[in-house]
């Protein structure tokens, strides 16, 4: 059951299986976006704390350590145990997520259940990571080993706190790495709770470390640390570039980046307008629009454009905005005052540049960071709202004539995270899917992210892949071994 008065037990840094104060003694507030009021004071980690966390993680990765000597199947069992503890404490995790992030309770429960499934997927992969043997010229036998990279730094965002933690913990732990993670400063509560569960599950000291803090200090220290061998980040393009530069100038650590998007969803003339409008509605307004794959560029064929705009408007107007713990709420607050003002600013710019405001566009209430689901029609490609990532509940509906034209315009962006098409014509579906420059493409659906399929972006939407078997590669090194055999008789 939802609990808006959920007790907050864990507010300190987690290093070597112990909760400790920051070396500096500093704290920072985490705020409830539904009210704008402080939930708790969190220990503020910085370089000194990251150094201690890396030291613990490095010790846990020593060749003779408990973690390194553990069977791969045993690592899988630990991941499964952790997922079972999440299942036991699901209501607590959901309540913390709703308080700290503003997700409506059903959405937060969906994220928790999805995170459990992610950890179980990687629990099953832990003892299936192996190399190859290959024929070699001469009297040689060659084979490859897949070995863990070592200490990895992971920096996660605020929009899907628990899901992003599971996406990064799962492959790193299955591969045998040790972790220093920084949760987003806006949403540290579920990450700290998960740190406590990891100890209860039986992960050895130093395998998992959690350092809450700010990006330039704690995040910067992780990105530049000489003993961290890989950094994984989900967030903005701007910060991704900073992290990549720090990785290059420190020790050339591996980097995986899952960054922003301005994803296109193409509605073809043969689509059922009502069904297409529902798909587009979810593609934009899920998680209050705070979704990197949100289909904020909705391309609609000119023959059904007006009809589609009408249906989209009806859906947006009916969307219930309010307290995430109130039954029936499907749309909570934006994450904080900064994001709230940024989104309202984009809405103002959209109107000034000539887009037609169909519905929404205003703040809701006097407490918290609520914004109406907003739809613009008559949007053109050069408008700011059609080019820049808003990261809020704003749908831009754009008119097109031919599929080739839609593909060209869809690809005319520096992003390439996701894309979708709604059509009853298999040829159109395949033509679009093969031509669009995006890491994930959905046909007659959207947001269908599954653990088994890799997730990531083209162009400035990122480097590397999350989920699926592909994500393991970022946490592994490939070693080639060649052995001289006795001469042939």
UniProtKB/TrEMBL annotation:
Listed PROSITE patterns: ALDEHYDE_DEHYDR_CYS, ALDEHYDE_DEHYDR_GLU
Active site feature: 258
SUPFAM superfamilies, alphabetized: ALDH-like (SSF53720)
Lineage top rank: taxon: Eukaryota
Domain Aldehyde dehydrogenase: 20-481
GO molecular function list: oxidoreductase activity, acting on the aldehyde or oxo group of donors, NAD or NADP as acceptor
InterPro entries named in the record: Ald_DH/histidinol_DH, Ald_DH_C, Ald_DH_CS_CYS, Ald_DH_CS_GLU, Ald_DH_N, Aldehyde_DH_dom
Keywords recorded for this protein, A-Z: Oxidoreductase
Family affiliation: Belongs to the aldehyde dehydrogenase family.
Name this protein carries in UniProt: Aldehyde dehydrogenase domain-containing protein
Organism encoding this protein: Anopheles albimanus
Lineage: Eukaryota, Metazoa, Ecdysozoa, Arthropoda, Hexapoda
């Amino acid at each position: 059951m939802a609990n808006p008065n959920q007790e907050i037990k864990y507010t300190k840094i987690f290093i070597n299986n112990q909760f400790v104060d920051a070396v500096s003694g500093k704290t920072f507030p985490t705020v409830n976006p539904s009210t704008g009021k402080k939930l708790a004071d969190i220990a503020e980690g910085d370089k000194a704390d990251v150094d201690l966390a890396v030291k613990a993680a490095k010790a846990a990765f020593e060749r003779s350590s408990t973690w390194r000597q553990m069977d791969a199947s045993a690592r899988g069992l630990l991941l499964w145990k952790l997922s079972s503890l999440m299942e036991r404490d699901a209501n607590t995790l959901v309540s913390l997520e709703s308080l700290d992030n503003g997700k409506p309770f059903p959405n937060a429960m969906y994220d928790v259940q999805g995170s459990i499934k992610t950890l179980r997927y990687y629990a099953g992969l832990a003892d299936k990571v192996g190399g190859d043997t290959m024929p070699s010229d001469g009297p040689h036998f060659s084979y490859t080993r897949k070995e863990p990279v070592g200490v990895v730094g992971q920096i996660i965002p605020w929009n899907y706190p628990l899901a992003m933690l599971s996406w990064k913990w799962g492959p790193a732990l299955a591969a045998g790495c040790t972790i220093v993670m920084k949760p987003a400063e806006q949403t540290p509560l579920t990450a700290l709770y998960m740190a406590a569960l990891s100890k209860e599950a039986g992960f050895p000291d130093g395998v998992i470390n959690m350092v809450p803090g700010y990006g330039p200090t704690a995040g910067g220290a992780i990105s530049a640390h000489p003993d961290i061998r890989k950094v994984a980040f989900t967030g903005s393009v701007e910060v991704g570039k900073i992290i990549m530069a720090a990785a290059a100038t420190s020790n050339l650590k591996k980097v995986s980046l899952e960054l922003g998007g301005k994803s296109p969803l193409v509605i073809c003339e043969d689509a059922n307008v009502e069904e297409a409008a529902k798909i587009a509605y979810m593609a934009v307004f899920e998680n209050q629009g705070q979704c990197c794959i949100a289909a904020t560029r909705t391309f609609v064929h000119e023959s059904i454009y007006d009809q589609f705009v009408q249906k989209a408007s009806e859906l947006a107007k009916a969307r219930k905005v309010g307290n995430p713990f109130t039954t029936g709420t499907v749309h909570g607050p934006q994450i904080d005052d900064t994001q709230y003002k940024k989104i309202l600013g984009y809405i103002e710019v959209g109107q000034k540049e000539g887009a037609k405001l169909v519905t929404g566009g205003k703040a809701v209430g006097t407490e918290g960071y609520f914004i109406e689901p907003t739809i613009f029609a008559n949007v053109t490609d050069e408008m700011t709202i059609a080019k820049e990532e808003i990261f809020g509940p704003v749908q831009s509906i754009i008119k097109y004539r031919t599929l080739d034209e839609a593909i060209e315009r869809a690809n005319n962006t520096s992003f390439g995270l996701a894309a979708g098409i709604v059509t009853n014509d298999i040829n159109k579906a395949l033509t679009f899917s093969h031509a669009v420059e995006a890491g994930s493409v959905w046909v007659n659906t959207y947001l269908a992210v599954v653990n088994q399929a890799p997730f990531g972006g083209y162009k400035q939407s990122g480097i590397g892949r999350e989920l699926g078997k592909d994500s393991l590669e970022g946490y592994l090194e490939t070693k080639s071994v060649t052995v001289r055999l006795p001469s042939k008789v």
